[in-house]
Design brief:
394 residues; 2 domains; eight-stranded mixed sheet; Alpha-Beta Plaits; Aminopeptidase; elongated; single chain; alpha/beta
């Protein structure tokens, strides 16, 4: 594996590694990142940046200006952990908080952006303005939208926004930068089938919501297979069902609740999925002579890289790591990321940085996952190079 030379000293790398492991040991959930935010604020202030806190409750923005360049960009890292236990026993920096862990690498994302802020504040080898955005609550709690609702773009108008996420399976000195869809929309849906309960031995006296729900669950997978354009990727999954009681297995219940998730890479397919699930749920209920309440909850829109922003990110990745270490063809993920709210407002690019082998299946949101500290130098190099190239001094 090639080494990354971004001017980082051994002492700086040691400091950032220690900070990453400290954050890993003290995970905080979305909108609860008080300790993490305080560390971010203190680090940015010590580096000489102008610091703004409280956007989206626990969000932090560090602003760095150099020269007279008019262009302004935002670099975003997420800070929150997940509500799940860390099962790996061998780590000295294992989570100290029961039921919480950094299982997606946001501890690493935070430290890499802090490292870039520290370096750029020392060198100031650019002309323009950079906003280092440390976002809370990426894991489904709406942190990006909360920051934007608190006036992010009014207080920090930018010309482009960039995000970075680690990717197990790529080397820590390897990146993937691709224009177009990167992550899917992340939505939830729920259908409640309302029948007439009755004795299990006398089903003809009621209206069976359980059988209706079963028919619906069988048919729902035909939406992607038979209704959505096969050239447009999409996912519809049923993930939860509630009905009846195992303490009363001779009772057909009045109500069955079914829910799940839906994913798409385009807004048109997202709209179509919402409509199709509802039509299927209501149609199934009608066929069985029962009622149905259907709701669709839009959570996160898809992340779609702007072509020009992706081109600038690609140039920076190649400049930081070398042309042979950057992939320009890489499959999008059906996961979601609310960076989408930033890139919906301004041209944006979301890039992937390797996290090394997925050892023992330790992928994102896995109880054995850990961020690979060997990627820290690569991440700092990318962020630094992106700023110095995009805001090149005259």
């Amino acid at each position: 594996m090639a080494s990354v030379d971004n001017g980082m000293t051994a002492g700086e790398l040691e400091l950032l590694t220690a900070l990453r492991r400290d954050l890993h040991a003290h995970p905080e959930l979305g909108f609860e990142e008080e300790r993490t935010s305080a560390i971010v604020r203190d680090t940015l202030s010590a580096a000489g940046l102008e610091v703004h806190s409280g956007l989206g409750k626990t969000g932090v923005v560090g602003t760095l200006k150099a020269g007279n360049g008019p262009r302004c960009i935002a670099l975003r890292a997420d800070m929150d952990a997940l509500a799940m236990p860390e099962l790996a026993q061998e780590r000295p920096y294992k989570s100290t908080v029961d039921g919480k862990m950094h299982a997606c690498g946001h501890d690493g994302h935070t430290v890499m952006l802090l490292g870039a802020a520290r370096r750029l504040a020392r060198t100031c080898n650019f002309s323009g303005t950079v906003h280092f955005v440390f976002q809370p609550a990426e894991e489904g709690r709406g942190g990006a939208k909360a920051m934007i609702d608190d006036g992010f773009f009014q207080r920090f108008p930018v010309d482009a926004a960039y995000g970075l996420h680690n990717m197990p399976g790529l080397d820590p000195d390897q990146m993937a930068v691709v224009a177009g869809p990167q992550l899917a929309s992340s939505d939830r849906w729920q259908a409640v089938f309302r029948g007439i309960g009755t004795h299990g031995a006398k089903p003809h006296l009621g209206r069976d919501a359980v059988t209706a729900a079963g028919q619906f669950l069988t048919a729902i997978h035909t939406i992607v297979a038979r209704r959505v354009d096969p050239l447009q990727p999409a996912v519809v999954s049923a993930c939860a069902i509630q009905a009846g009681s195992f303490e009363a297995l001779n009772v057909i219940p009045d109500e069955v609740r079914v829910g799940g998730t839906a994913r798409a890479y385009t807004l048109d397919v997202r709209d179509q999925i919402e409509t199709e699930i509802g039509e299927l749920a209501r149609g199934t209920a009608t066929m069985f002579g029962i009622g149905c309440d259907y709701r669709y909850f839009r959570n996160i829109p898809p992340v779609v890289n702007d072509a020009d922003a992706a081109s600038r990110a690609l140039k920076a990745a190649r400049g930081a790591l070398g042309e042979g270490r950057v992939l320009t063809a890489f499959p999008p993920s059906t996961a979601g990321d609310d960076f989408a709210y930033f890139s919906a407002e301004v041209p944006g690019a979301y890039v992937w940085l390797g996290n090394g082998p997925a050892v023992d299946g330790a992928l994102h949101h896995n109880s054995h996952y850990d961020f690979n500290d060997a990627a820290i130098a690569s991440g700092v190099a990318f962020w630094t190079t992106l700023v110095e190239q995009e805001l090149a001094a005259g």
